[in-house]
């Protein structure tokens, strides 16, 4: 996200703080909903004969779509409750810290890329409707997070890879 919005040196100068924090929280809500929805769809498929009328993948994708919608709604309510009545500087500080966190920015980018690919693939398949497209995007975002974790663990350009390597070569912001 730090590539698309300005990131000043001080939190007090952070523009678009409400938009940044809201986008982040809703994105994480969609990730959680996709993961739990897919797990629910797989469990339901295994436990219910009625659920086995559809293929396992379809059951997981549709349940993931419902999970994305529900968890995003819950995340919106949680953010509203948590930040209700807070001053602008508190929004700016939280948004600034999100943009300062390089691993979090990597997760955001990989997750959004996975969601885009998953949503496009879900949109190409006929008959999936909103549950399928939303579920495909949600599962794609979770796969993107897993991809980031593997990439970072294997020595990609992430914070963790730099911290493990030679301290003289570490990429540290001052």
From TrEMBL:
Record keywords, A-Z: Membrane, Transmembrane, Transmembrane helix
Key word Transmembrane present: yes
Transmembrane spans: 60-79
Protein name: Uncharacterized protein
Source species of the chain: Tuber aestivum (summer truffle)
């Amino acid at each position: 996200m730090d590539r698309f919005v300005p990131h000043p040196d001080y939190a007090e100068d952070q523009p678009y703080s409400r938009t940044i924090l809201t986008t982040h929280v809703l994105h994480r809500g969609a990730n959680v909903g996709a993961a739990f929805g897919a797990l629910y769809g797989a469990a339901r498929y295994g436990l219910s004969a009625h659920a086995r009328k559809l293929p396992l993948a379809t059951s997981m994708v549709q349940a993931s779509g419902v999970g994305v919608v529900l968890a995003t709604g819950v995340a919106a309510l949680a953010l509203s409750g948590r930040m209700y009545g807070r001053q602008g500087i508190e929004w700016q500080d939280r948004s600034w810290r999100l943009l300062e966190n390089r691993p979090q920015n990597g997760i955001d980018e990989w997750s959004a890329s996975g969601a885009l690919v998953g949503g496009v693939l879900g949109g190409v398949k006929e008959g999936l409707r909103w549950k399928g497209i939303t579920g495909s995007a949600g599962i794609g975002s979770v796969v993107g997070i897993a991809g980031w974790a593997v990439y970072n663990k294997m020595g990609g350009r992430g914070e963790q890879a730099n911290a493990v390597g030679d301290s003289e070569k570490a990429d540290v912001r001052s």
